[in-house]
Amino acid sequence: MLSFFKGPNRIEAFSDGVFAIALTLLILEIKAPNIGENGTSAALWAGLAHLWPSYLSYLLAFLTVLVSWIGHHIIIGQVRRVDFPLLLANGFFLLTVSFLPFPTSIVAEHLRGESGTAAMVVYALANLLNSAAFVGLVAATVHLNPETAVVLAGVRRNAMIGIGWCLLCAGVAYLSPVVSLLMVAALWVWWIRPQNAGV
């Protein structure tokens, strides 16, 4: 089986393409305010301010994909051997990354309405799934490349923290969708810090 998979180069190239597309799709969810041809500057400013959930959800989703890419880069940098389970784990992880624009659009559209709770539960669970897929990718990597266990321990720990935190965010959404969104923001800000990169 191993003879069919020569190394991690194609995984890295394919994955980087998926990450780039996912980042591009995120910005498409922000729509210009519709104020009509005769709209005033004040109306435009008000319309832009009204879109703050779109800006925040875009920023958080961008950070999610960015942190996912950083973690993926760390993992692939350690891989020396590739097998079918590792390819499947990588594919599932990319599936969760490419899915992120959808819950992002839901939050942008529904955060302030009666459906805000449901929107944030979906968003938090999408992030939870992304963290769980990352843990699976680490496990598949370490299983085939045991020498990577120590190096990848940090990123695996952070992903496990993410699973628990996103589950908590889903619960908090029933009390306050906005607080839940800010909690997700806190997670990604914490993860983006260099000392939490896991290396």
TrEMBL record:
InterPro entries: TMEM175-like (IPR010617). The chain crosses the membrane at residues 55-75, 87-108, 120-144, 165-191. Pfam families: TMEM175. The keyword Membrane applies. GO terms for cellular component: membrane. Keywords: Ion channel, Ion transport, Membrane, Potassium, Potassium channel, Potassium transport, Transmembrane, Transmembrane helix, Transport. It catalyses: K(+)(in) = K(+)(out). GO terms for molecular function: potassium channel activity; proton channel activity. Its main location: membrane. It is a multi-pass membrane protein. Belongs to the TMEM175 family. This is DUF1211 domain-containing membrane protein. The lineage of its organism: Bacteria, Thermotogati, Deinococcota, Deinococci, Deinococcales.
